[in-house]
Structure formats: structure tokens, C-alpha cells
Amino acid sequence: MSRSRRTVTSPTQFQAANAALVELARKDLERFLATDPSDGALREFFFALTAQYGAAAATLAGEYYDGLRANAGVRHGFQAVIADTPSRDVTDTAVGWALKSRVTTRSGVDNIVTVRLGASTQRLVLGVGRDTIADSVGADPAKPKWGRMPVGETCAFCVMLASRGAVYSSKSMAARKFHDHCNCVPVIRWPGDPEPFDTKPYEDAYKDARKTLERNGVEPTTKNILAEMRSAGGIVQEGVPASGTAVPPIKKPPRPGAGSPAGDPPDDDKAAWKARQDAVPVDFGGDVLAPHEVRFVERFLDMARRSSGYPQPARTHRPTTSCGQATGTYRPN
Q1: What is the sign of the dihedral through the CA atoms of 153, 159, 165 and 171?
Q2: Dist. CA 255–CA 125, nearest whole Å
Q3: What is the pLDDT of residues 178-233, one digit of tens each?
Q4: Residue among 294, 249, 246 at smallest CA distance from 269
Q5: What is the mean pLDDT of residues 64-81?
Q6: Range 119-141 burial, b when 16+ CB lie within 10 A, else e
């Protein structure tokens, strides 16, 4: 698989592109569910959906990894390792979990099925990209490490892992665990480089919880520390969409733009670029994007709209939205 274009070059940009990709996948899923498919047809569709969008997420992650590697000045000769899409067993389990809670009397689309499968769609699609990052770190002769950078509302488990920074190898199974609704972004640290984001807010949250337990005579096990972090407030429950913001999101300094294309406002017109960002139907977790990142997301969504089709369940149960055309990069093997 060739990846000659280097379009994803920052964690914020990577998160925004993934959010847009997941939104497209969820819309395909909702349209299919609205046809009231049989359980078997839903299993077929969901397997195809996560395979197609997962492949696109892997390609995005590969570009992100290779772009960061190039920007860090790491020697050439290595390209990101693309991870496999979810297996049939994994997608069938997700569908079974969603259908198990379905009410006996059905009327149109069951909201609980839509919500649960929507959450699984995000986790499984983004999981292919996250595995691509972890697998690449393990195979890269430059021996980098990776970690997770929280974006917006963050749960205690993710705060704990983020507090350690980019210290994980590909073999760290705990670091690979991402729950439903998790927006954390994989970041990479190359040997000799500083941490790619400020870990102090997360370290402080973890240490405060530990000190509270010790002060109260409670053993500071991982389980107890996570429980204390949740009870202290500002931390959300794993796998549950949050209504408030936990530890403040980390904002990376905007990268200097390469100038403003004709018709665009000047790069230093912050109000104009904020208005353009607000017009994009993607939740950026409170981050303010740089002008070049706003252009990227606009271009990404425009290509997605122009290339997108919808499932036709009377003929097939495969999703028809072309993720490759949406990202401008993915090509089937």
C-alpha cells in the first residue's frame, strides 16, 4: 500500500480527521438501522462497515506516524505498519451486545441499539489506527515510545495513562486499551526528544488521588486510585459520554502556517479562523485549530461529501461510502 501524501502532521489534526471519519461511519450505520434490518443482515453490514472505515483509519494513522517521523528528522528506511481491521468475531460480539438490550416490542430503530453500536463503531474503527501506531512503534528501528494525549473530557483510566507520558512500547497491553467514547490521541516520542505534550495536569490529578488515599489510610492500589479520581470530580466514567470537561485539554502551540491561499483570511486573523472552525461539524474538544488545520478538515469533509454514497440494503449490506476517497489516500490492496 502506497502512502505518498503526508497530510496529517499534528495530534490535533489527526484527532479532527478521525472524528470526521467516525461521523461518516455512524451516519452510514444509522441509515442502515433505519431500514429495520434482520439481525443477520446487521452482522454482515457491521463487519463490512468497520472493515472499510477501519482501513481508512489505519491509512490516516500511517500518514500521521510517517509524517511525525519525517518532521522529527528520523532517518528514512521505515514506513508505518498497517494494522488489521476487526475480525468477524469481534464485530459479531459488538452486534450481539447491542442487540441483547433491545426491547421486545420494536418500533422503528431501537435507540439503545443505535447508541451501543455507534459507540462500538468509534472504538473499533479508531482501534485500527491506534494499533497501527502501536505496531509501528514496536517495529521501528529508531525505537520510539508512544502514549495517549487526552482531548476534552477524559476518564480516570486515560488520565492515569496520560500522566506517564509517551513511555509505552508496542507490547504494553494496558496502553492499548481504549474504551467506547474515548477521544485520546496516540502521540510518539523519539529518543532524546521531550514529551510531546504537557503531562503535569494528569500527573497532578493522579498524585492528588494517591495522597488522599494515603492520608485516609486506604491502600493506594490502581483500582482505589482510579475510584478516588472519579469521586474527586472532573473525571468521567469510562465508556460513558461526558457532560462536563475533566482535566483541561492540552493545547499544542499552533504550527506557523505556510501563508494564506487566495480568498482565505490572513493566518493571524484569529476571529475569522475561529468562525471557520466553528462552522465545521466536528467536536474538537475545546482545542483551537491553526489555520492550516482548519483548511485540512474542510478539505477532508468536502471530499467526503462529494464521494459519499449510502447503503442500499435491498441489494447489499455493504456500506457504500468510500473512505479512501474521503481521506484522499486509501487504496485497497
Answers
A1: negative
A2: 28
A3: 878 888 889 999 888 888 888 888 888 899 999 999 999 999 998 999 888 888 76
A4: 294
A5: 87
A6: bbbbbbbbbbbbbbbbbbbbebe
